[in-house]
Design goal:
The chain is α+β, with helices and mostly antiparallel strands and 211 residues long. It has a 5-stranded antiparallel beta sheet, with no helix packed on it. The chain has a 4-stranded antiparallel beta sheet with strand order 2-7-8-9, with helices on one face. Helices cover 35% and strands 26% of the residues. Residues 98-104 and 186-193 have low confidence and may be disordered.
Length: 211
């Protein structure tokens, strides 16, 4: 009995061997790596969800405001490709400027309307590749594109178009734009732009249209 007790005490005093310690460290590192990976994946998923929701809210709000202003405008001041010469209708045959894919027919960079308050609004849409995309109302950007703002977005493209099937039809104004996540550095752009861009479209018929 005494010999047995001495052997047990001897084993306790000896503690863990180096191999056992290394094995424990390896197991802990492996478990920690798995937990860190799962946590990082969850955070990336949550961040992407928040990014998409922010883009959706910005796009829907802007599209709703633009379409309402055009639909209920008291005066349709016209469409333009250069900001100086405006037309109050759009071609219904052999359109000029060149046709866009259906449902849009003729593309323009400017549309001017007068809402109920009597203050004219001029929307300007410029799309790549000539220069970075901009969508403004009376010279002010419609979207928050400040990279230092957490809720900002990136305008990737936009389009103002006009559809008219017959000469007597009221022109249908098409508004389209694509928004993506804000870009503050190369890594964020590469990570967030993966399936995060959303295209918003609407077609508006003016209720108070007079050619």
């Amino acid at each position: 009995m005494r010999i047995k007790i001495k052997n047990q005490k001897s084993k306790i005093k000896n503690g863990f061997t180096l191999v056992e310690l290394l094995a424990s460290v390896i197991v802990l590192v492996a478990v920690g790596s798995v937990i860190a990976g799962v946590t990082a994946f969850s955070l990336r998923g949550a961040n992407k969800t928040n990014t998409i929701e922010n883009i959706r809210q910005n796009g829907n709000y802007a599209l709703n405001q633009i379409s309402k202003n055009i639909e209920f405008a008291t005066v349709f001041n016209g469409l333009s490709t250069d900001g100086s010469t405006y037309v109050t209708s759009c071609p219904y045959s052999s359109p000029t400027p060149p046709a866009l894919p259906v449902p849009f027919v003729s593309k323009y960079e400017y549309i001017k309307i007068t809402p109920f308050n009597g203050n004219p609004i001029e929307y300007q849409c410029i799309s790549p590749p000539t220069m970075p995309a901009t969508f403004t109302a009376n010279g002010e950007s419609i979207f928050n594109t400040d990279p230092n703002n957490a809720n900002s977005v990136t305008l990737e493209s936009c389009s103002i178009a006009c559809t008219k099937t017959n000469a007597t039809d009221v022109p249908i104004i098409g508004i389209s734009f694509t928004l993506g996540p804000k870009i503050s550095n190369g890594n964020e752009m590469a990570e967030n732009n993966n399936n995060s861009s959303i295209t918003f479209k609407t077609s508006v018929t003016m209720r108070n249209y007079k050619e």
